[in-house]
Every structure is written in C-alpha cells, then in structure tokens.
Design a protein that fits this description.
Belongs to the membrane-bound acyltransferase family. It comes from Prevotella fusca JCM 17724. Its main location: membrane. The chain is mainly alpha-helical. It folds into two domains: 16-203, no CATH class; 206-286 and 374-492, no CATH class. It has 20 helices and no strands. The radius of gyration is 24 Å and the shape is globular.
C-alpha cells in the first residue's frame, strides 16, 4: 500500500510541476513518450478526431512541462490567431484586408515582443537617458519564437491564397501546438503539416517510421554524445577566455562551431524523427552546412526553416532582388539583422547578424562583378571552403559570447598569444575532446548521397538490427551523458 501511495505521489508531482530541463532527449520525456505512443497507436485505429484531441492534450502537457504557467500563452495565441485570420479573410479585398492582415500579425507578435524585447528596449532607453532604472529579468517562454513564426506564416499564406482558409480549429491547434516542434522547431509551414493532419491515416508507412528511428538515433548521437561532451570545454573558454592559451581559445571556437551544429541539427533530427514515428513527414532543417563554399550556400543549408521563412516573409516583401543590386544588398543586410535579433534581445546577436549581412553582401557583390570567372577547381574550392568556415566560426564568437569584452579578449588571445608550443600541451590535456571534434568534422564532410545511402540501408535492415543499434546508442547516451547534460542552445530563442 505504501508503494502505491509513493508511486501516486511521484506521478502527481511529475504531472503538476515544471521541468526546466524538459526536452526530447531527456529520460522523463522518453518514458512519457512511450506511454503516449502506445495509446496513440491504439487510438489511430478509431476516430481521427479523438487522435487529434489526444495529441493536442499531450502537446499542451509538453508545453506545461517546458514553460510552467506560461504555457497558457500557446493556446491563447492559437485560438486568437485562428479566429482573427478567419475574420481577416471576411474583410473586403484591398486596403481594408491589408489593414486586417497587419492587425493579425501584430497580435501574433505582441507576446513575443513583450517577453523577448521589453527589457532590451528599456535597457536602450536607460543607456540613452543615463538613468538608474534597472528592469527585472523576464522569463522567456520556451519556443515562443518558433510557434509565433508558424502562426504568422499561416496568416500570410492564407491572405496570399497560398493555403486555403478552411482549416478547422482542431486541425490548426494540432499544427501550432504539435509538441516535437515546440521547443526549437523546425518552423513548419501549414502547407507541409496541415494536409497530413487532415488526411486519415489508414495504413502505417513503415519506411517513414524507420526513417524516424534513424533520425532519432542520429539526433541522440549529435546532441547527447557529441554536443554535450564538447560543450564542457567550450564553456570554460567562453566563460573565461583569459585563462586559456591562444591555441586553447582557438580550439574553443572550433569546438563551439561543432557544438552548435550538433546541438541544433541533433534537436531537429529528434523532432522530425518523433513526428515521423507518428506518421508525419517534415522537411529537413540542415544539409551539411559546413560543406558550404560561400555564405549564400551556407544559409541554404543551415537552419533551412528559418532562412526560407525570412526569405519568403521578409526578404521578398522588401523587394528581394527585383529592384536592382543596391536594393538587393540592403534587403539581404536587413534580413540578417532581423535574424540576429530573432535569436535574442542582445547586441551580441545584432553583431552576429551584421557580420552575416556583410558577408552576404560581399558575396553577392563579387558574384555580380566577376567571381563566376574564377576557375572552379580543387584549389579554389578548398580556399572558398576555408574562407567560409573561418568566417562563420568568427561570427559564432559573437553569437556565443556573453558580451563584447569576452569576444574581443578571445579574439585578441588567438591573434597575439597563439604559438606552436601550446599545441602539444593542449594535445596532452584534451586528447579525447580534440578527437571527438575532429571526428565530428570528418563525419560532417561525407557526401549527402553517402548519408542517404546509409539511411536507406538502415531502413531496409531487419528489425533486430535496428533494435540493436538503437539499444547501443541509448545505452551510450545513458552512460556517457548523465554528468554532462546541457540544455538545448536554441531553447533560449
């Protein structure tokens, strides 16, 4: 009887309390998902409405575990966005409907602007007025940037006729609250997910399910085995760069470049994989970005969901490349500054956005002024890759640093104190860390065709092989990551 009471108490505590570490790769979520998934499979055989309501209920619970009481923002934004979008489409075409569109977008943006940028704005006024006012730090709801952008994309797509205005409230709620996407996306368009929600799932797509399992395995390896391990040294460097040698700082920058890729693409793999297990196919969010030969290509491969969102809902509406070269450069630059601010209310993210904006403008300028005439051989490709990777890594310094002093100290140490004598010391002190970073970069360099070949071989393998691979990876995650669990970097955005 005592055991039952303890179990009931523990279950109640779990269901009623927020978990600041809640994410797709934590053990509590995995156990919860197994219970959820077992019931989901059974419900899928019956009425689709019950299945949708069940998934929505679990998504709300997922949002509660991540955000606590702030989870109420999600259903409020969902319902208001759906009703206001329908109301907007009843307005007369022309100026009135455009005003309606602006009002709906503003209503969708207001929670994000309030929770994410209020303190940043007040700090700017504080600096300008030289006052002693110090605002209290506000809690940022996890994932608010992602589901806000999904809501805006739906409203704009309905307004422009890209997507029909006939989505029912239950389908739209499923779309905007879908739990794999809540913490860190990827930002998914209505045209990708909603038709799948509205279509009855009579048969299980085994290939999609096995692809989902493959992505979950890849995501666990990237996040729990690679990113969390190398983050330990990266944190030392960026917390106190002056305590490390110039070469040590350089390795910290290289390590963070690997960490942020493995962390975010690992989460995207997990999110897309979990959705695939449930029968929903989402688009890839990363395509080996560090293979890019220029910055434009990098943004076609990195965080594809966000880069295409800014392309379709900011860059093109600003005029895109339709109004001459100078306007194209300006639009690219502005889009990257907004992308920087989207990542966080900090001048460091603005600097990161400016650096990428300058890089894109320089590349577009060179393309328009003779860059295409340079021979496309192994030497130019190697040099292009080295310049691109170095520039992206330089920008990551400002992205990761807490302030400008940290960033400039780190860069100065790399430039002025790096010497060959430190290489041997570093190798002796951090051999495993360096091996993990270099192996990760080497694995990242494989051809996309080879990666998809491996994926297809996994999908075609027997269930016993799949089970063994998954069990080995899961055991490695449990054994190796229990003392180094790091929150997903993109949960703060």
């Amino acid at each position: 009887m005592a055991n039952i009471t303890q179990l009931t108490t523990a279950l109640f505590d779990f269901l009623s309390t927020q978990d600041k570490n809640w994410s797709l790769c934590t053990f509590p979520f995995m156990v919860s998902f197994l219970v959820f998934f077992a019931i989901y499979i059974g419900l899928n055989r019956y009425r689709q409405t019950w299945t949708k309501a069940y998934v929505i209920a679990f998504s709300i619970f997922f949002a509660f575990k991540a955000n606590g009481i702030l989870m109420w923002l999600l259903p409020i934004i969902t319902i208001s966005s759906w009703y206001l979008t329908r109301f907007m489409m009843r307005l007369k075409r022309g100026k009135i409907r455009k005003i309606g569109l602006a009002v709906v977008i503003l209503s969708e943006l207001l929670p994000l602007l309030y929770y994410k940028y209020t303190n940043f704005t007040l700090e700017i006024f504080h600096e300008l007025l030289r006052s002693n006012f110090s605002p209290e730090k506000m809690l940022l709801p996890v994932g608010i940037s992602f589901f806000t952008f999904q809501a805006i994309s739906y409203t704009v797509d309905v307004y422009k006729g890209r997507y029909p205005k006939t989505a029912e409230l239950i389908d739209y709620t499923f779309y905007l609250t879908f739990f794999p996407l809540l913490i860190a996306g990827p930002i998914t368009r209505a045209e990708v997910l909603l038709p799948q929600v509205q279509t009855p799932k009579d048969n299980v797509n085994e290939s999609l399910v096995y692809k989902g399992l493959w992505l979950i395995i890849c995501g666990l390896i990237k996040k729990a085995l690679i990113a969390d391990y190398i983050a330990q040294y990266n944190n030392i460097v960026f917390d106190a760069p002056a305590t490390q040698s110039g070469f040590g700082n350089l390795m910290g920058v290289l390590g963070f470049s690997v960490q942020i890729y493995c962390d975010f693409s690992g989460y995207s793999d997990l999110a897309i994989g979990v959705a695939a297990l449930m029968g929903y196919e989402l688009k890839d969010n990363f395509r080996f970005p560090y293979q890019s030969l220029n910055l434009t290509e990098f943004w076609h491969r990195w965080h594809i969901a966000l880069s295409t969102w800014f392309r379709d809902y900011l860059y093109i509406p600003l005029g895109g490349n339709r109004k001459g070269a100078l306007r194209t450069y300006l639009n690219s630059f502005l889009a990257m500054i907004v992308a920087g601010l989207w990542h966080g209310a900090s001048w460091m993210f603005v600097v990161w956005g400016i650096l990428h904006g300058i890089g894109l403008v320089v590349h577009k300028f060179c393309i328009n002024n003779g860059l295409r005439e340079i021979p496309n051989n192994a030497y130019t490709k190697t040099l292009s890759w080295l310049i691109t990777f170095s520039y992206v890594s330089l920008a990551w310094i400002f992205f990761r640093s807490s302030d400008m002093t940290t960033a400039t100290t780190l860069i100065n140490n790399i430039i002025h104190t790096t010497n060959l004598a430190d290489v041997r010391i570093f190798l002796m002190e951090y051999p495993l860390w360096l091996a993990v970073v270099l192996i990760s970069l080497e694995l990242h360099s494989i051809r996309e065709a080879d990666y998809y070949w491996l994926q297809s071989k996994f999908i075609q393998s027997s269930w016993l092989v799949k089970l063994c691979i998954f069990a080995v990876v899961l055991q490695l995650v449990i054994n190796l990551s229990q003392h180094s669990i790091q929150p997903f970097i993109y949960t703060q955005f």
